Amino acid sequence: MPLCQIIVNPDRPFEVAVKQFSRSVQNAGILAEARRRRHYETPQARRKRKAEAQRRRQKRSRF
Question: Which of 9, 10, 15, 55 has the fewest C-beta atoms lying within 10 Å of its C-beta?
Fold first, then answer.
């Protein structure tokens, strides 16, 4: 699991640190992975999801 860590500057407001932390969590994909792991996904469903994502990527790259 990726680690998100920020260094808080005492001179800056707390809200800035929270926003910076939220951005780093979003970029690391932690929330997306937690949502994905919330329920068990069968191997068949995983293959289907990955194949569909691959088709979308290929469709976008053609244009």
Answer: 10
